[in-house]
Amino acid sequence: MKTPGRGSTGGLRGRKRHLYEGGIRVPGLVRWPGRVTAGTVSAEPVIGSDFFATLLAAAGVRVPKDRVLDGVNVLPVLTGTATAVERQRPLYWRLLMAPQMKSALRDGDWKLLADERLEVFELYNLREDERETTDLR
Fold this sequence. Notes:
Elements: E1 2-3, E2 7-8, H1 21-24, H2 48-58, H3 75-79, E3 91-94, E4 103-107, E5 110-114, E6 121-125
Antiparallel strand pairs: 1-2, 3-4, 4-5, 5-6
């Protein structure tokens, strides 16, 4: 889906300032010779808070037991020792300037969107419906 002056969302619903996949899904690049194999591709969802946990792990820094990080270490996926990470909590986005849906939760293949007042919801299975065309609610 190409919008003049706004780039392509690769056919995904939404664009910037939307919590649909077309607004939040972006490619990430990692280069770490000797640790990350060139050409490695992963579809594992990663969110900004995962970078801190991953950088700590890459530097060999242990998180104190009395601290809880919002993100998870995705280094095993990057280095090829795992294909997915185990999350204790769903991914969460809150975007008050979004035109309609202001919050989104993703847990595995499932994604729930909500308006600001938590009165309107949309539910999608991203494995079955990557373009978020069929609300399962």
